[in-house]
Design a protein that fits this description.
196 residues; alpha+beta; five-stranded antiparallel beta sheet; two-stranded antiparallel sheet; 30% helix
């Protein structure tokens, strides 16, 4: 059991939005500036298999993404919406272990500034842990044409279920975060997948 004077806050921008970690005592919608959320990470353990990996989202600094994808259909995106979860300090060590295991396929924990909106509508900065699939990890796939990416997501299935369920739940969840939450890449991929 770990107790710390600084609260353990983790930012969810993918499946953590619709499948939050245990022992959450508070949550607030928030966003990152200067990043993009992209389906640029292979999933060998949740939404695919080692033989046929699915695709899941990762955060990529906008400037880094520009180097990987000069053909990105949404070059002006640079805000990522998600949820900042505050974890009960009594269970901090347990939740850290849970998240380290859950995010084991190429993700690294980083500390990021999340911008949240308080109850009076003012923006405030929340310091948060966040699991990021850096571009130097073996599961990072980079940019793929949206049609090929949609097809991969449509056919992939892993221990956590069909990859398309992940996509559709994520798109629905991002829409519900805030009247301002939006993700061009995510919504275009959702549309492309429904046309298959």
């Amino acid at each position: 059991m770990t107790t710390n004077s600084t609260p353990f806050i983790v930012f969810g921008y993918g499946s953590l939005i619709f499948k939050p970690p245990p022992h959450v005592i508070a949550k607030v919608p928030g966003f990152l500036k200067g990043y993009v959320r992209r389906f640029a990470q292979k999933s060998h353990d949740h939404r695919g298999t080692p033989e046929s990996p699915g695709r899941v989202v990762t955060l990529i600094h906008k400037e880094d993404w520009d180097h990987f994808s000069d053909a990105d259909a949404f070059p002006d995106d640079d805000i990522v919406w998600g949820i900042a979860y505050t974890i009960d300090p009594v269970y901090e060590a347990e939740v850290r272990d849970y998240l380290d295991y859950r995010e084991k396929d190429g993700y690294t924990k980083e500390i990021l500034n999340i911008h949240g909106i308080d109850s009076e509508g003012r923006e405030r900065v929340i310091i948060s842990d966040c699991y990021v699939g850096r571009n130097d990890n073996p599961s990072f796939i980079g940019s793929e044409p949206i049609e090929a990416l949609a097809h991969c997501i449509w056919i992939s299935v892993g221990p956590s279920g069909p990859n398309k369920d992940y996509l559709f739940k994520l798109a629905e969840s991002v829409r519900e975060l805030s009247p301002d939450s939006y993700d061009s890449h995510l919504y275009a991929l959702e549309v492309s997948s429904t046309l298959l």
